[in-house]
Amino acid sequence: MVLILGFLLREALPILQSVGIKAFLTDKTWSPSQQSYNLVPMIWGTLFTATGAVLLATPLGIISALFCQYYAPKAIASGYRRLIELLAGIPSVVYGFWGLVVLVPLINQLHPPGTSLLAGILILTLMILPTIALVADATFAEVPQAYLLGAAAMGLSSWGTIWQIILPASKSGLFTGMILEIGRAIGETMAVLMVCGNVVQTPDSIFAPVRTLTANIALEMAYALDNHRSALFVSGLLLLSVIILLAIAAELVKWDRV
Amino acid sequence: MINEMTEIQSLMQIQQLSLRYQQKLAFQDITLSIPQNSITAIVGPSGCGKSSFLTCLNRLSDLIPGCTVSGHIQLGTLNIRNPKINTTALRRRIGMIFQKPNPFPMSIEKNITFPLKEHGIKNAQERDRIVEQVLQDVGLWSEVKDRLQANALNLSGGQKQRLCIARTLALQPEILLMDEPCSALDPIASGIVEDLIISLRQKYNYTIIIVTHNLAQAKRIADYAALFWVDGSCGRLIEFAPAEQFFNAPNHELTQAYVNGIKG
Ligand SMILES: Nc1ncnc2c1ncn2[C@@H]1O[C@H](COP(=O)(O)OP(=O)(O)OP(=O)(O)O)[C@@H](O)[C@H]1O
Ligand SMILES: [Mg+2]
Q1: I need a labelling partner for A251 at 20 to 30 A (CA). Which of A44, A174, B66, B161 fits?
Q2: Distance from the CA of B47 to the center of ligand 1, in angstroms?
């Protein structure tokens, strides 16, 4: 980790020294050949896709875990769990491919061009759903049986029990799950690259194409030279810092729990 | 004392009740009438099915996977064994206290107000009134009135158990089932809860069914007592009698041996 961070820093340093940090936020456009390095549209791209996906996946994942723990019969629950684990293991290119072939044409019918922020959000949702669903499932499994029996013995409804007892008791576990899914959403490259359209622009609607930071790196690294290359490393550094901060946050939540 | 048994109203009639976990019979053929406004103690060695028996009475047995019950339980006009009855309403009528105090992980006050809300008591003042009332009833009010918002999990064991009793009382049940409510507590806390149980019976005429391992305690608090025993590997009811008779002149040899501490 330290090595990677050091490497990123070394590679990013030349441009940080020559044009400064501010350039990445205030330059007019992202056109490295014209010494213009505005990352803001891509930062928005990453932010919007990740936020959208987390907002969708979190409730869905929690509902799926509640179903698994408290409603589904044992056999169905364990089959369902297996399925989600499987979903977590599918390579991201496959998701991207599916998105490109199925999702994008569908969205295109709704509102062209199809490759869009929405497609990115939906694909990411699908990809991070297993993360939150599995973490939530494991968290709910730890809620003491005594609470549930106590609630049942008082004739409390399942909704009341879920809202007032199970969810609050699982707060920190669910929070950890969210941090993990955010990390995954921000870091995901291949699938979003395939379905997002990759136009460098701050999206004005969910049907507009966007380019994320990760996609930008993947697309341009192969031919980037000098300052351009260095600028890509700056965006890599930015991503890594966010991930590290998330990891620290997750660690703090865990500490809080002990 | 002329023919006490017929004078006392029975609140709940249990007939030929049996319970299995998968293939294993936990207890069999228990027939027993629970007298109204009195404390019935259930005693017996470990594993004879006392806890399992209690879970049938409020249908908590429904929640245990692989558990099947047969027999008949009647509470007034209500057939408890009828699968169609509203268990929410039933469990409001029959409260249950567990061996290990299990307050919810929320504030002391909310432990009482949340179930009240769930049971449709919408008026906040009414709820506050009940909170004070039941905390007074269990003797917790003076100890916690300044920290009602504190987390209930930070109370002492005895206080937790009294809170659990309070939140159950708040729903105004007719019957209280208690499964070894004192056995996880230290002797002093245990004594306080024991006194509380007696006062519930004397002041408010609750009908209480209490499982206990502590014979001395059963002797101190019970009006009636029942002895369960493991016969083979299956629990059975050996004797049910008014406490006087149960402890001093039991009909059954096994009861005699048990209360004298020779067996069990
Ligand atoms: N959920 C369960 N699944 C399977 N068997 C169970 C279950 N709960 C209890 N048993 C078995 O049923 C029998 C009766 O158990 P129960 O807990 O009712 O006894 P008990 O009289 O309350 O014992 P104790 O005094 O130790 O609390 C025991 O043999 C026990 O192993
Ligand atoms: Mg027991």
Answers
A1: A44
A2: 5
Rg (C-alpha) for chain A, rounded Å, is: 21
Residue B45 three-state SS:
coil
Domain count for chain A: 1
Alpha helices, DSSP H only, in A33-142? 40-66, 74-89, 92-98, 104-110, 117-141
Residue A203 lies in a domain: yes
Q: Which residues have CB under 8 Å from B262's CB, separation 6+? A: none
pTM here is 0.87
Residue A158 falls within a domain, yes or no?
yes
Q: Which of B17, B23, B43, B50 to mutate to test the pocket of ligand 1 (most atoms within 8 A of CB)?
A: B50
Q: Which CATH number does the domain housing residue A111 bear?
A: 1.10.3720.10
- The C-alpha atoms of residue A143 and residue B66 are separated, in whole angstroms, by 22
Tokens of B1: 């004392």
CA B190 to each of CA A78, B98, B115, B214: distance values in angstroms, whole numbers, following the listed order: 42, 14, 26, 11
- A188 Cβ partners below 8 Å, 6+ apart? A92, A124, A127, A128, A214
Structural tokens at position B181: 């409510």
Distance from CA of B3 to the nearest CA of A (A): 36
Q: Is residue A53 part of a domain?
A: yes
Mean pLDDT calculated for residue range A125-150:
95
Cross-chain residue pair A154–B63, CB shorter than 8 Å: no
% of chain A exceeding 90 in pLDDT: 74
Under DSSP, is residue A202 helix (H, G, I), strand (E, B) or coil?
A: coil
pLDDT (tens digit per residue) in A2-26: 899 899 999 999 888 888 888 888 8
Residues from chain A that touch B65, judged by Cβ atoms under 8 A, are 74
Whole-angstrom distance, CA of residue B57 vs CA of residue B74: 9
| pLDDT the model gives residue B203 | 87
DSSP state of B190: H
Tell me, yes or no, whether A5 lies in a domain: no
Domain that holds residue A125: 45-219
